[in-house]
Amino acid sequence: MFFLTPVLAAVVCILIVWIFTNADRSMERRKEEPRARAEARPWVDEDLQDSTDLDQVEEDADESQESEENVEHIAFSHIRYPEKEMVKRSQEFYELLNKRRSLRFISNEQVPMEVIDNVIKTAGTAPSGAHTEPWTFVVVKDPDMKHKIRGVVEEEEEINYLKRMGHRWVTDLKKLRTNWIKEYLDTAPVLILIFKQVYGFAANGKRKVHHYNEISVSIACGILLAALQNAGLVTVTTTPLNCGPRLRLLLGRPANEKLLMLLPVGYPSKEATVPDLKRKRLDQIMVTV
Ligand SMILES: Cc1cc2nc3c(=O)[nH]c(=O)nc-3n(C[C@H](O)[C@H](O)[C@H](O)COP(=O)(O)O)c2cc1C
């Protein structure tokens, strides 16, 4: 009984040392895991922030934004159409935009770059929170870069479809017959990647808040879609899930920019089809009070 006590004490000591050593190792492993994950995918801290993280930026920017308050106000020039003309113009514009469809089959025929310049200038006329114009339109024509973009999008989209989206989402997409293969990223002569600038920089280098940046850039994207339709080009609105950070780094864009939308632009391919979707009637979307 008495000589059991030192043996027991030794066993207890060994056990304690073993428990501490293992706890240390598992702490080390836990520290390593995020690092390994970060290396596997180039997530950058700022890419994971949303607008709720920007309070600090707002504080930093206050001073520098005050200096930009003094803008001269000038007379507004307006063209007023007769009512008949207004009705005609609004009807024709509706008919033009009602023909817009999301095209997932785009030919490799080149498009005039002057048209691309014009549609982007048009998108840049969008209103923006406090006139911050928080958008960057990256136009990709280079076939190698388009192919690299396709590689990133298909890799992430395959994971999206198989793992991230869930049964309901995948079922909702069935009618569109979409999957993670995005041939149009190679065939379309132009890809436009629209980045929202979550903050900008004042003349003194300080961060400048971009109020409502996502809404502002979304409006610009809507205008861009209308301008493309007006010019006779086609596209499909895409928001490649989880591709933003990788595409941002691939295109060498700074950390204050986050990918909002990717538009492949061109002419429809000869064999292009679209799902026969119906749009809601006016009485289903408008309420008059
Ligand atoms: C915010 C947003 C994200 C979209 N993302 C995708 C997408 O990732 N892939 C795709 O093929 N279509 C995408 N679409 C296109 C829609 O599927 C399409 O607009 C809808 O089915 C209606 O068809 P229509 O554009 O021909 O009227 C997206 C549309 C919007 C507005």
Automatic annotation (TrEMBL):
UniProt cross-references to Gene3D superfamilies, sorted A to Z: NADH Oxidase (3.40.109.10)
Enzyme class, one word? oxidoreductase
- Ranges of compositional bias, category Acidic residues: 45-69
Q: Which Pfam families match?
A: Nitroreductase
Catalysed reaction equations from the record: L-tyrosine + chloride + NADP(+) = 3-chloro-L-tyrosine + NADPH; iodide + L-tyrosine + NADP(+) = 3-iodo-L-tyrosine + NADPH; 3-iodo-L-tyrosine + iodide + NADP(+) = 3,5-diiodo-L-tyrosine + NADPH + H(+); bromide + L-tyrosine + NADP(+) = 3-bromo-L-tyrosine + NADPH
Which stretches are tagged as biased composition: Basic and acidic residues?
A: 29-44
Is Transcription one of the keywords? Answer: no
Can you tell me where the transmembrane regions are? 6-23
- UniProt entry tagged with the keyword DNA repair: no
Q: What is its EC number?
A: 1.21.1.1
Instruction: Give residue ranges for domain Nitroreductase.
Output: 98-267
| Keyword list, A-Z | Flavoprotein, FMN, Membrane, Oxidoreductase, Transmembrane, Transmembrane helix
| Annotated segments matching region Disordered | 29-71
Which cofactor does the UniProt annotation name? FMN
Q: Which PANTHER family match?
A: IODOTYROSINE DEIODINASE 1 (PTHR23026:SF90), NADPH NITROREDUCTASE (PTHR23026)
Q: Which family does it belong to?
A: Belongs to the nitroreductase family.
| Function according to Swiss-Prot or TrEMBL | Catalyzes the dehalogenation of halotyrosines such as 3-bromo-L-tyrosine, 3-chloro-L-tyrosine, 3-iodo-L-tyrosine and 3,5-diiodo-L-tyrosine. During thyroid hormone biosynthesis, facilitates iodide salvage by catalysing the oxidative NADPH-dependent deiodination of the halogenated by-products of thyroid hormone production, monoiodotyrosine (L-MIT) and diiodotyrosine (L-DIT). The scavanged iodide can then reenter the hormone-producing pathways. Acts more efficiently on 3-iodo-L-tyrosine than 3,5-diiodo-L-tyrosine.
In Swiss-Prot or TrEMBL terms, this protein is called Iodotyrosine deiodinase 1
Q: Which organism is it from?
A: Ceratotherium simum simum (Southern white rhinoceros)
